[in-house]
Amino acid sequence: MIAYLGIDIGSISTKGVIIDEKQNIIASSYLYTEGNPIAAVKKLLAELEEQIKGKDIKILGVGTTGSARKLIGTMLGACSIKNEITAHAIGTLSLYPDIKTILEIGGQDSKIILLDNGIVVDYAMNTLCAAGTGSFLSSQAKRLGIDVKDFGKIALTSEHPANIAARCTVFAESDLVHKIQMGYEKKDIIAGLCYSVASNYLNNVAKGKKIEGPIIFQGGVSKNIGVKKAFQDLLDQEIITDPNGHLMGALGSAILAKKLSQGREFNFNITDCSFKTEGVECGKCPNHCEIIIVKKDDQILDAWGNRCPRGTIKVKE
Q1: What is the pLDDT of residues 137-146, one digit of tens each?
Q2: What pTM did the predictor assign?
Q3: Which of 132, 143, 145, 95 is nearest to 230 (CA)?
């Protein structure tokens, strides 16, 4: 069987899928990046390899996306290294060709993608504020002494969600503490946090955007049914979620790898190699560029960060 690998490397989580030629997912994995994308991808590949063990599968293309896409793409010899907007749009459209709006919230970033007849016409990503992301919900769940996986289920039991400031993380946390001290029920505070995340997203990431249906909500936070309900209430529209909503970026990357494949077979033995990065300052001109060097078994694979030819580092063929 011919197959293709797609990996989405984020700051919080790393996702991977293997698809067949009909773009069906035949293996998938999701794990935490833990500040080490190289180690996370090695672990991810080990899990994916285990899932297809004993099957006659040849992977003829690798695609990467996410914040560490260039690093991991270099490491794996990817034929496709694309940004998250492109990858998420392609992955989503492969399953929902009529979608017009993609709401995506991950661990530390969030984005909105607007489509018209399958073409991206507008998009936006969050800036510095993390109040509308998964990491914010995780930290507040810890503060409240509950598992973040139970957040949505508890939120749906609330009939009077607390009104929690949604302007930024600092204000939201301050307001949360105030509500706790006032004696609000925990379920109402949890529901209020779900509405806070959705409101922050709509007032910041989606500000000025024309949100039209069909709408799909994806990313890790889409698993939270409390946030989904908050979006439905605030937008007064039905929101679609998919069991593989957290894998859309990886799926899009795999599809791109299929399109751009050069026919080279990927070998999982690459996980046995030693990969490391080094940061150096060029110093050959006033720019003082910070250059990142990627090495495989002490051999330079690639380097980037220089803004002029003086900082070019030659890669041995």
Answers
A1: 777 788 788 8
A2: 0.84
A3: 132
